[in-house]
Design brief:
CATH class: Alpha Beta
Order of helices and strands: HEEHEHEHHHEHHHHHHHH
Largest sheet: 5 strands, mixed
Radius of gyration: 17 Å
Number of helices: 14
CATH superfamily: Protein tyrosine phosphatase superfamily
Distance between the termini: 27 Å
CATH architecture: Alpha-Beta Complex
Number of domains: 1
CATH topology: Protein-Tyrosine Phosphatase, Chain A
Strand order of the largest sheet: 1-2-5-3-4
């Protein structure tokens, strides 16, 4: 693996321990291609927050959090409603990156994570634009983006944001791979539920991977088919002004 290596100390600093949230991380401190760094305590990524205790919720409020974007699909929201729904202290925004009953998603039938991520790039452009619209609203930051594991849907959104503000591909790959260090307890739960649901476990286990090579291939696919991350966001309808706003807000 080439590029900047993330040490365990750096990874531990990036992760915010929170009861019943395993993969909550700050995306600050990453070097950009022009020699600057992403700001700490402005944008966070996480697995699902539906089980947070009032004490854990307060920890997030203490970070100054103003916006939570929940990328989970309809069935997940119904089965595990967010504790922040209707909260007067934070703007909770459910934006499903895709729905399982969407005909385009049903037809795609991804066999592995490479195909899941390419499916997201191809079919979730309106939803990704909505995420950027929310993040660039006045007063939206600090913000947190999450899904169920905080690895795939969240990983794609964060990869596009990091790329758009100038973080190099290999650092994005390393940020993606950090999920593998923290998701162990949650993956046990997810595998057990998948087995109860009668899913093909060989197929399902492939979807639980955090292999950096997967994100590396995804970023190569992005460049080949869409250009860089900023060009992709522009193709979704994100404006140059919004991209510049993101760079100003997230990079110091």
């Amino acid at each position: 693996m080439t590029g900047i290596q993330t040490t365990q100390t750096e990874a531990d600093t990036r992760r915010l321990p929170l009861d019943l949230a395993y993969n909550l991380r700050d995306i600050g401190g990453y070097a950009t291609q022009d020699g600057r760094r992403t700001k700490w305590r402005v944008l966070f990524r996480s697995d699902s927050l539906h089980r947070l205790t009032p004490e854990a919720q307060q920890q997030l409020f203490d970070l100054g959090l103003r916006t939570i974007i929940d990328l989970r699909y309809r069935q997940e929201l119904a089965g595990a409603p967010s504790v922040f729904t209707g909260s007067p202290r934070v703007h909770y925004c459910p934006i499903a990156l895709y729905e399982l009953d969407d005909p385009a998603i049903i037809a795609y039938r991804p066999r592995n994570l490479d195909e899941v991520y390419r499916m997201i790039l191809a079919h979730a452009q309106p939803q990704i634009r909505r995420v950027i619209d929310r993040l660039t609203e006045p007063g939206a930051l600090p913000a947190l983006v999450h899904c169920t594991a905080g690895k795939d849907r969240t990983g794609m959104v964060i990869a596009l944001i990091l790329g758009a503000v100038g973080v190099p591909d290999e650092t994005i790959v390393e940020d993606y791979a950090l999920s593998g260090a923290y998701l162990g307890p949650l993956l046990v739960e997810l595998r057990a539920q998948a087995a109860r649901d009668g899913l093909d476990m060989n197929w399902y286990n492939r979807l639980l991977d955090s292999d950096p090579a997967i994100m590396r291939r995804t970023l190569a696919h992005l460049r080949e088919h869409y250009g860089d991350a900023a060009a992709y966001l522009r193709a979704t309808g994100v404006s140059d002004r919004q991209i510049e706003w993101l760079r100003a807000a997230l990079v110091e």
